[in-house]
Amino acid sequence: MGKQLIKGNEAIVKGAILAGCRYFFGYPITPASEIAEAAAFYMPLVGGTFLQAESEVASINMLYGAASGGIRAMTASSSPGISLKQEGISYCAGSELPIVIVDIMRGGPGLGNIAPEQSDYNQMVKGGGHGNYKLIVLAPNSAQEMCDLTMLAFELADKYRNPAVILADGFIGQMMEPVEFPKAVEKIPEKEWALHADADDEKKLICSIQLDPDVLEKHNLKLQEKYKKIAAEVRFEEYYCDDADLVLIGFGVVSRVLLSVVDILREKGQRIGLLRPISLWPFPSFQIAQLAQKIKHFLVVELSNGQLVDDVKLAVNGKKPVLFYNRMGGIVPSPEEIIAHIEKTVKA
Amino acid sequence: MAKIIRKSDSFYPIYEHKSGAKDVTHYCPGCGHGVLHKLIAEALDDFQIRDRTILMSPVGCSVFAYYYFRVGNIQCSHGRAPAVATGIKRVFPESIVISYQGDGDLAAIGGNNIIQAANRGENITVFFVNNAIYGMTGGQMAPTTLVGQKTTTSPRGRSVANEGYPVAVSEMLATLKAPVYIERVALTDAKNTNKVRHAVRKALQIQIENKGFSLVEVLSACPSGWKMTPVQAKQWITDYMCKQFPLGVFRDTSAEIEPSPAVKNEFISHDLFKKLDIPDKPFRAVKSETPPVNYQNPRLKIAGFGGQGILLLGLGIAQAGMQMGYQVSWIPSYGPEMRGGTANCHVNLSNKRIGSPVVSQPSTLIAMNLPSLEKFECEVIPGGLIIYDSSLINRPPARKDVEVLGIPATKIADDLGNTRIANMVILGAYIARTSIIPRQVVVDTLPVFIKRKNLVPLNVKAVDKGIEYVSQ
Ligand SMILES: Cc1ncc(C[n+]2csc(CCOP(=O)(O)OP(=O)(O)O)c2C)c(N)n1
Ligand code: SF4
Ligand SMILES: [Mg+2]
Asked: How far does A318 lie from chain B, in Å, by closest CA?
């Protein structure tokens, strides 16, 4: 297949269209706007629909409506816009609508800035909206994965009737890298629960309200059962973990920096490795727990105030020290900075 | 003989969703919602559109509209029914989509959503139940609550000073160009109810004929919220609400629009690569000799003013590098900071998988203005390369442990008649000095990222001038 040097944000749209997505509802925000722009350009060429909504609130609700019709649809935004979408995301989770939401994270809180942060981890992975729900959250670290994981997001969303998220940071969105685009998905699964504007629709209902506590509890239990099944979809990458004493953990652009750290320190003969969660939920807790049996310590690096590290600590469960290094405000640490931190804090 | 009154076919035979009671609605006696439901259901029957109707149940007392209507049902979040309706209507243009909303839902929390859906001219029908109160939550003030009207959150009566005047939705939306039909009616006596029936039909007919957006505002009793008997409540609509909200047609362009059949969506799934501008030739890397060790696997930082083509220069190197079979990455500085300010980008070319795409210790710095040189000179690794535009920077780099190449790129570009191609002069100089990319590969890849094709030959000339300068 042809190779193309392309921005991560654009690769998302092409991947989405190859995955059969034909609906995009969005609202401009840096550093995610290229996604809406590419969708505005390409969707009409493939018989699809692009609509710039009046707000992120509107766009997630347009998605709610469109997904009720069983087609593949998506939206994209960045942190403040995602905050606005949260009520709608909760509705989609409650009504079990398979949608794809892209979040190209920027600095916060508030208007913050447009530089890369990872501080939406909690609001996406833990559920920023109300209710007992889970989103499938995938964290690409290259332009290629922006395409591939977007396609996977649509597949998983449909398979489990659940919203799926692409959680990337400003750099992964803005970065250009070569992408090899895979073949288009040929057949999208039929959805018998979806509305089709035909006589069968009277038997269907897209809805998240259940006034009766017994009924709502049942619905919640059903969702929790589903989430247990989704746990099997965990995805991660290990890099030199086999004989490592120290394992670094990070996702998105941070995992790229950590890759450099491992390369540099391995060359110096140090036993260091990297575990990169590709799915943030489900989280590779089992893999981390297994590593905890054999390695000496973990170092979690994130562009937020200690959000990812909480999940790592839960997985490690006190068995080994979990060290922590972070930057906030849109600063991506250099490999040298992290190496200096390792030399200072990690005792061999 | 007694007349048999049959329940509309567009209602479920039994309201089975409702726990307990059968065949009684959950609405209070004298509530307008039930009557309006009936008028809508009858219209769906008569137009034979029940099968393809999809109804939005809003947040409000009509949240359970889906108990009754035997159609496709979507329950929406508070105020967002017009957005949800937009979504599903865009999927099924041939469907009949009804957004049924209360005044809190439509005029308060969802105010912008209804304005924008109306303004887009979505081909949907909106039934707007104005009962001047939040019925469901127990009688709080709505945007449509009358001045002086007591509610649980305006216990001394709505005051203009604190809450402003009631919102006149129909009048407001009628100022927009796209809506086809907007009428306000009232569920009071038989005559007015007949007008409601007529308006409901007209609004649906407009959607059936694919003419566009319509909205029927229905003044409707909420005896519970108003703390009145059903009879008093009807009288109150006539005596007070109709004064504040005069009945009538506020917009009707339906006669001017030709009916047209709705066109089903056709997704296109063939030739996707072509449509998506993805090259479908198999990729083949260009082979060439290996560059000197100190130039291999470069990590570049390229910086200058916005407008100097800094990002494009980086892109040129990345694009050609990819063609050479290298792993490559390119990161721009992005966002509003680019406007008129400084610009920079980070480019990696490598035989190995690229770790950090952010270049903190460049092996090559390209500086196209003095601030960039001053800022980044110190970052370059010992033995690295600094290329700078000597026509704009009069202070050569101070570092003695790096290789320095000054080139009057802007002057050369000016001589070629276009200042903006100084970046390509630098590109030529860079590849000539490092042998990292053969000239031909750069020339072949230029058209990929230079948008204005007629400028390609001039850019090639600039690259050649750069090569020439270094080779002298
Ligand atoms: C986001 C959100 N805010 C508030 C509510 C609570 N709420 C439920 S119904 C309602 C008011 C509905 O009033 P209206 O639209 O006038 O409908 P009515 O009951 O009068 O028919 C409110 C505020 C909610 N469900 N969701
Ligand atoms: S509270 Fe008012 S609007 Fe709600 S059902 Fe009762 S009368 Fe109708
Ligand atoms: Mg009301």
From this structure: 30
